[in-house]
Design a protein that fits this description.
The chain is of the alpha/beta class and about 300 residues long. It has one domain: UDP-N-acetylmuramoyl-L-alanine:D-glutamate ligase, CATH 3.40.1190. Helix 6 links the parallel strand 9 and strand 10. The chain is globular, with a radius of gyration of 18 Å. The mean pLDDT is about 95.
Length: about 300
């Protein structure tokens, strides 16, 4: 299975705290970690570790963080020729993680906002030959929309992770094969707090199918013909960073192996469950073999 990921690349600065700070509160961090991140790159790494052939289209700055991000790509067999180096800081994410694994994230986009359509169009051939093009919302919205249009016109399936949630014209959703929001993003996009109603509204806006991630509760799927709920796996969570990105990698690689949607959702839940038991972003994402072993141990 081939995937092109068009999206963000960040250096993550993660601080472990006893509890997340309230407004005006200062809390001490017990640990500071730096690691590669960004929703786009996290999803590319997840896809690669789970067996996909991946091209990452993104941008980094001409700085130390950018060099680290580029230097890490070969470990996951991700080529660097589609990464643009620009005169700006590499994107940064500042993450706090509490003792229950909950987090808050502040992102400085930096070079990610220099990812323009002229650069994306350089890889039209790779996009046309891919099974999926995967996008998020941490790059300019104009680039997201134009990339969706390009992939759709090339008859490549489009997957949109609307994170962070930003309003898009309804016509954009008519070109999206699968939208994957979490509960919060679904509510922001549709105004619906009910998962089923929110998914229905995204379909009315034009999306072909919707998968809503529900954290430890699992996930929910809806298209014009069916609704499927799959329960999550109970694990001891220590850090939820990148769990949603890992889920997306799991779902798409399973679909790429022609699994039915229910089986793919179960596999994706397992990927996310393993991820939250480990600290960090990309370093927490499992391999295909690790997921298979996890599922074998969970079989009755």
């Amino acid at each position: 299975m081939k995937a092109v990921v068009i999206g963000s690349m960040n250096m993550d600065f993660t601080m472990d705290v006893d509890h997340l700070p309230s407004k005006g509160e200062t809390v001490p961090a017990v640990r500071l970690r730096t690691s590669p991140g960004g929703k786009g790159l996290n999803q590319a790494v997840a896809l690669a570790r789970l067996g996909a052939e991946v091209l990452m289209v993104g941008a980094v700055g001409n700085d130390a963080s950018g060099k680290v991000l580029l230097g890490n790509l070969p470990k996951d067999r991700i080529p660097d020729f589609a990464i643009k180096t620009v005169d700006d800081s590499t994107g940064n994410a500042f993450i706090t993680v509490d003792s229950q694994g909950n987090n808050t994230i502040v992102v400085y986009p930096g070079a990610n906002y220099k990812l323009d359509m002229h650069w994306v169009e350089s890889f039209k051939g790779e996009i046309e030959s891919a099974d999926f093009v995967v996008l998020q919302m941490e790059i300019p919205v104009e680039t997201v929309i134009a990339s969706i249009e390009l992939a759709h016109n090339l008859n490549t399936k489009v997957v949109l992770n609307p994170a962070p949630a930003l309003p898009l014209p309804d016509y954009v959703y008519t070109m999206v094969d699968l939208v994957i929001p979490n509960e919060t993003e679904l509510a922001l996009l549709t105004g619906e707090t009910n998962i089923v109603e929110g998914a229905r509204k995204l379909l009315q806006m034009g999306a072909n199918a919707v998968v809503v991630t529900l954290g430890s509760e699992g996930c929910f799927y809806k298209d014009a013909n069916q609704e499927i709920s799959v329960e999550g796996f109970k694990v001891n969570a220590i850090d939820s960073t990148a769990a949603g990105d890992a889920f997306i990698g799991g779902l798409l690689t399973a679909l790429g192996r022609h699994e039915d949607i229910g089986t793919a959702m179960k596999f994706a839940n397992a990927v996310g469950a393993i991820t939250v038991t480990r600290p960090g972003a990309q370093e927490s994402i499992p391999t295909y073999e690790e997921v298979e072993e996890f599922l074998r141990r969970r079989e009755p």
